[in-house]
Write a structure and sequence with these properties.
Elements (H helix, E strand, L loop, with lengths): L1 E6 L6 H16 L3 E6 L17 E5 L3 H9 L4 E2 L2 H8 L1 H10 L7 E3 L15 H8 L3 E5 L8 E4 L2 H10 L5 E5 L7 E8 L2 E9 L13 E4 L4 H13 L4 E8 L5 E7 L5 H7 L3 H15 L2
Parallel strand pairs: 1-2, 1-3, 3-4
Antiparallel strand pairs: 5-8, 6-7, 6-8, 9-10, 9-12, 10-11, 12-13
Helix pairs in contact: 1-9, 2-3, 3-4
């Protein structure tokens, strides 16, 4: 079986190379020849087909245009262009979760603006304040590792944050005080929960490990498990890292969903290597034609 591991040409850091190496090693154990390709290497005219395509590709990037081009040529992607796009854009994530009745914090989307104008009028905050109150979480639509996520404790702070973003799309969410600085990363592969860890930070409202958070193995509750699986179904994911908040009275709320999760921290916390489960799922899916 032949496959491509499609990666970003500009994210050539040790952090990313470690993940790529783990996936390639896991592929070898499944007797899969996995060849790494950058998105830059796979550029060709959109009206022409690729000369050769493998049996599948792991799309470990967010270049949705290329993902759709490859799917138009008949290549099976893990994860699909739809899933990658839906997870990468937090506004789309919120819409898909809501449409499928998956529990998440109350969310208000920003109005659309443009580069030459920015958010020159902020009266839309009136409705957001009524729905969400303060503190209010403000997230740029695109961002990773807890970056581009802000906490506004007042109207003044919210206005400062929004103006600093220029013309970028963003969402506003209700701050879940019961989950301050902590969440559960639930790793799902093939519709099954494989490994979970608690992430916590005593000095930041965000729990991300890359922001100084800590981690520990965690036994997921049935409600948390079902919420994470429902999120993956809504976003049509083969595998994902789902961040689950602790809502009032223990009700799980989906914070974010990652289509290409950095699972080294999960390995360190739990001893479970997600790459082996991902590659086994891919082999089974391709073999069965799923």
């Amino acid at each position: 079986m032949q496959g491509w591991l499609i990666v970003n040409p500009f994210l050539d850091t040790q952090k990313f190379q470690e993940i790529y190496g783990m996936l390639c090693a896991a592929a070898e154990k499944e007797h899969i020849h996995l060849e790494m390709k950058t998105t830059a290497q796979l550029k060709c005219p959109v009206d022409q087909g690729f000369a050769h395509l493998p049996d599948f590709a792991i799309f470990w990037d967010k270049d949705v245009y290329l993902a759709r081009q490859l799917e138009q040529q008949g290549l099976r992607l893990f994860n699909s262009a739809f899933a990658v796009e839906a997870c990468d854009n937090k506004a789309l994530t919120a819409l898909h979760l809501a449409a499928n009745h998956v529990p998440a914090p109350a969310t208000v989307l920003s109005p659309k603006t443009f580069e030459a104008m920015g958010y020159c009028k902020l009266d839309f905050l009136d409705e957001a304040e009524k729905a969400l109150g303060y503190p209010m979480v403000i997230k740029e639509a695109y961002g990773s590792f807890g970056q581009q996520v802000y906490l506004a404790d007042s109207r003044k702070t919210a206005e400062e944050i929004i103006r600093s973003m220029g013309y970028k799309d963003f969402i506003m969410q209700k701050f879940i005080e019961t989950s301050m600085g902590r969440d559960v990363r639930v790793n799902v592969v093939g519709g099954k929960v494989i490994a979970c860890m608690l992430r916590y930070n005593d000095h930041d409202f965000r729990s991300n490990i890359s922001n100084g958070g800590s981690m520990a193995p965690y036994t997921v509750s049935p409600a948390q498990e079902e919420a994470a699986l429902a999120a993956c179904r809504a976003l049509q994911l083969d595998f994902a890292g789902v961040d689950v908040l602790f809502g009032d009275n223990g009700v799980p709320l989906i914070c974010e969903v990652n289509s290409n999760p950095h699972f080294k921290s999960t390995l360190q916390a739990t001893g479970i290597d997600l790459s082996t489960h991902i590659m086994h799922h891919i082999r089974e899916a391709i073999t069965c034609g799923a």
